[in-house]
């Protein structure tokens, strides 16, 4: 059984949310409007600076069509690297999205 470091778990959740938001070409503001959160709060979640509640994880997951289990699956270094590369590429592609 994998034992999560809470800081790493918050960062992991944030990166997954960021990845799916960018895939849908949404700004933090747009996502926040859809799920009833501020842009600033979405940003803090994506940066791993706050603990998202289960309620907020479910709202975001439902809107972005994320299988909630992905937040709690340990990823290997290659998978993490692929996520970071995709985030970087999507940010470059969609420079107008914050």
Automatic annotation (TrEMBL):
Q: Name one GO molecular function term.
A: DNA binding
Query: DNA-binding among the record's keywords?
Result: yes
Residue span(s) of domain HTH cro/C1-type: 17-71
Q: What is the lineage of its organism?
A: Bacteria, Pseudomonadati, Bacteroidota, Flavobacteriia, Flavobacteriales
Q: Which InterPro entries match?
A: Cro/C1-type_HTH (IPR001387), Lambda_DNA-bd_dom_sf (IPR010982)
Report the protein name in the record: DNA-binding transcriptional regulator, XRE-family HTH domain
| Any Pfam family the entry gives | HTH_3
The lineage's top-level taxon is: Bacteria
- Record keyword DNA-binding present: yes
Instruction: Report the SUPFAM superfamilies cross-referenced here.
Output: lambda repressor-like DNA-binding domains (SSF47413)
Organism of origin: Epilithonimonas zeae
Q: Which UniProt keywords apply?
A: DNA-binding
Spell out the coiled coil positions from the record.
none
């Amino acid at each position: 059984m994998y034992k999560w470091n809470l800081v790493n778990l918050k960062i992991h959740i944030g990166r997954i949310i960021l990845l799916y938001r960018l895939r849908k070409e949404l700004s933090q503001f747009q996502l926040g409007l859809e799920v009833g959160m501020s842009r600033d709060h979405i940003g803090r979640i994506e940066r791993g600076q706050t603990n998202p509640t289960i309620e907020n994880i479910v709202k975001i997951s439902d809107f972005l069509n994320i299988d909630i289990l992905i937040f709690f699956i340990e990823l290997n270094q290659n998978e993490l690297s692929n996520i970071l590369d995709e985030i970087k590429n999507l940010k470059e592609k969609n420079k107008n999205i914050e």
